[in-house]
Design brief:
Layout: E1 3-15, E2 19-26, E3 30-36, E4 56-61, E5 72-77, H1 88-104, H2 112-127, H3 135-147, E6 161-163, E7 168-170, E8 179-180, H4 182-193, H5 206-223, H6 233-239
Antiparallel strand pairs: 1-2, 1-4, 2-3, 4-5, 6-7, 6-8
């Protein structure tokens, strides 16, 4: 039975001469891999441009449980972007987020709240003209909420460090092996307390932004089994510097 759904493209790789394998975060089924036959053919209805990272799609498919690669019968762009793939800074964030989601979202594990969060966040970034350099950090913090290890910041006190293992702020102690240093922990606490539409109020330096990203990747590695890090964060640090 054909099913109408929405999806967010995470990654694609070329398969053979004309086809694509596309990994999509779907609204109804979680992360699903699709085989798109003939995408590079002259008369294909499935244009490669549909499958750029983080593109918001509407599609029709005949999903079959247990099949490794699913198939689409129709596809179209749900919401066209204005700038997301055209500006270098935003495009570096797109590549980073698509890799992050690919390595943290479980296949065939539907999560409507996670889908809604990503869907809304992408649109916000697309419409921003300036002051979005800290978006990727905010995204990582909020994504951790959906993955089950959101930082606990209720009992923060000035001078505390953020214990990456326990996921909370505490006074520095020799027993704390993985922590964000005290001064940077103050900035991290502010980040955790800042909503998306107030990110412009943060005043992170280049080095603070880069260091927080490195610490957040360690945080994910400590709390997500199988997560070994990212390849795109170094490029992102340089571009957003």
């Amino acid at each position: 039975m054909n099913e109408h759904s929405r999806g967010i493209v995470l990654q694609h790789i070329r398969y053979g001469d004309t086809s694509l394998i596309v990994k999509i975060l779907t609204e109804n089924h979680g992360m699903v891999s699709f085989l798109v036959k003939g995408a590079y053919g002259k008369h294909s209805r499935f244009k490669p441009a549909f499958f750029q990272p983080l593109t918001l799609l509407e599609f029709v498919s005949n999903m079959k449980p247990g099949r490794e690669l699913q198939f689409m019968t129709e596809v179209g762009v749900e919401i066209p972007f204005h700038s997301l793939h055209n500006e270098m800074q935003k495009n570096s964030i797109v590549i980073f987020i698509s890799e992050l989601l690919s390595k943290t979202s479980l296949e065939n594990n539907p999560n409507s709240l996670l889908f809604g969060f990503v869907h809304q966040s992408i649109q916000w970034l697309d419409l921003q003209d300036r002051r979005f350099a800290d978006f990727h950090l905010h995204f990582m913090v909020e994504l951790s909420r959906h993955l089950g290890f959101y930082p606990k910041s209720d009992h923060y006190a000035p001078g505390d460090v953020f214990d990456l293992m326990d996921g909370l702020f505490k006074p520095m102690h020799p027993s704390v092996f993985h922590a964000i240093p005290s001064g940077l922990s103050t900035q991290f606490h502010e980040l955790c307390q800042t909503p998306l539409d107030a990110l412009w109020k943060l005043h992170l330096s280049r080095e603070q932004r880069r260091s927080l990203l490195d610490h957040m990747i360690v945080y994910y590695r400590l709390h997500l089994p199988g997560f070994k890090g990212l390849q795109s964060h170094e490029v992102l640090s340089v571009v957003l510097g």
